C-alpha cells in the first residue's frame, strides 16, 4: 500500500490530517513522525534492503522544535535516493514557505490551514500526488 509521511509536531494538526485522510485509508496509509530528525532517520532506515519502502510524498510542517523543515529538505536533497520524493510544505506563517520553494522536490507550499475543510482540500491534493484519486478534469 502506498504511504504518505506526515512530519508534524502539533497534536491538533496531526488529528486534523488523520481525520481528513480517513476517506483514503483503503488506498493510502498515513504515517506520522514528530520531527525532521525522526523523518530523516525513518527514511534512511527504509533505504536498507532490496526494496525500499518509501512514501510517495511527504507533508511537512516547516516550523518544528527538532529538525525544522529546511533542515529536513536539505537532508533529503543530500541523500540521492530521497531527493525525488515530492514534498508539500506548510507553515502557520508564510515567511517559512518562500525558502522552501527553492528545493526541487517541493511540489507545493501552503499556509497551514486552520479548519477541517481546508485540511481536507490539502489531503485531496496529496491523494492525487499519491495516485489515490484521479486528477481533476477541467
Automatic annotation (TrEMBL):
> Which InterPro entries does the entry link to?
Bact_response_regulator, CheY-like_superfamily, Sig_transdc_resp-reg_receiver
UniProt modified residues of type 4-aspartylphosphate: 61
- Keywords on this record? Phosphoprotein
Q: Where is the Response regulatory domain?
A: 3-127
Q: Which GO terms describe its biological process?
A: phosphorelay signal transduction system
Q: Does the keyword Phosphoprotein apply?
A: yes
Q: Which domain of life is it from?
A: Bacteria
Keyword Cytoplasm set for record: no
Task: From the Swiss-Prot or TrEMBL record, give the protein name.
Answer: Response regulator receiver protein
Amino acid at each position: 500500500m502506498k504511504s504518505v509521511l506526515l512530519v508534524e509536531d502539533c497534536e491538533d494538526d496531526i488529528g486534523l490530517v488523520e481525520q481528513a485522510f480517513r476517506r483514503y485509508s483503503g488506498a493510502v496509509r498515513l504515517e506520522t513522525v514528530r520531527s525532521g530528525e525522526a523523518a530523516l532517520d525513518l527514511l534512511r532506515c527504509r533505504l536498507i534492503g532490496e526494496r525500499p519502502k518509501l512514501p510517495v510524498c511527504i507533508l511537512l510542517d516547516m516550523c518544528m522544535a527538532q529538525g525544522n523543515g529546511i533542515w529536513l529538505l536539505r537532508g533529503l536533497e543530500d541523500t540521492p535516493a530521497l531527493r525525488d520524493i515530492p514534498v508539500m510544505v506548510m507553515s502557520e506563517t508564510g515567511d517559512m514557505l518562500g525558502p522552501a520553494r527553492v528545493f526541487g522536490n517541493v511540489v507545493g507550499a501552503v499556509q497551514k490551514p486552520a479548519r477541517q475543510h481546508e485540511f481536507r482540500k490539502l489531503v485531496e491534493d496529496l491523494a492525487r500526488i499519491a495516485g489515490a484519486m484521479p486528477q481533476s478534469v477541467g
